[in-house]
Amino acid sequence: MILTTRDPESWYESASKTIFTASPNFLQKLKILTKLPFSKRMRQLMPVFAQVDYLWDVIFEGKLNDKDYMIRRFLAHEKKVKESIPKRDLLVYKVGDGWDPLCKFLGVSNPSIPFPRSNGREGFQKNLEMIRNGIVPKVS
Fold first, then answer.
1. Which fold has domain 2-132?
2. Which of 18, 28, 35, 92 could be disulfide-bonded to 24 (CB atoms 3.0-4.6 Å)?
3. Phi, psi of 117 (to 5 degrees)
4. Comparing C-alpha atoms, which of 108, 71, 113 is closest to residue 91?
5. pLDDT digits (tens, 9 = 90+) for 60-90
6. pLDDT for the residue 139
């Protein structure tokens, strides 16, 4: 198992500006629903929307703006994973560490291409706005 990790403060700062903004409000949901009959891809995304609502409302109890609470949840999750998985079967991985630890853990050679960096804040917000407008972004 691979547990990606990062500094909890930087995680919260990033998440509060990206994924925490992803749950559409009522009017945005209506706009998305009007596209369903015409877009197979939008219909495929519906389970994702339901999971986002569940995550925000049930798992995080609607406390996305409570930084201390969210960081406690983040740290508790990491602790639970580390306690549940034998060390030999777990890589605690920081994406900034690149290919070396990941490929070593997986038992494969490092690729000859640079480690990818994608899903930045600007791209995330652009894709989110497209989805809210009933347009499904292309996945590369």
1. Rossmann fold (3.40.50)
2. 28
3. -130, 115
4. 108
5. 777 888 999 999 999 999 999 999 999 999 9
6. 61
Q: pTM for the full model?
A: 0.67
Distance from the first to the final alpha carbon of the chain: 25
Dist. CA 132–CA 76, nearest whole Å = 32
Residue 131 CB coordination number (10 Å): 21
Pull the structure tokens for residue 73. Answer: 């949840």
Of the candidates 132, 107, 127, the one whose C-alpha atom is nearest the C-alpha of residue 31 is 132
At 123 the pLDDT is 76
Section 108-132 average pLDDT: 80
**Alpha helices in 85-120, H assignment, sequence order:** 99-106
**Cα-based distances in Å from 119 to 38, 62, 116:** 27, 24, 10
Contact call for residues 46 and 36 (beta carbons, < 8 A):
yes
| Strand blocks (E) in 53-137 | 91-93
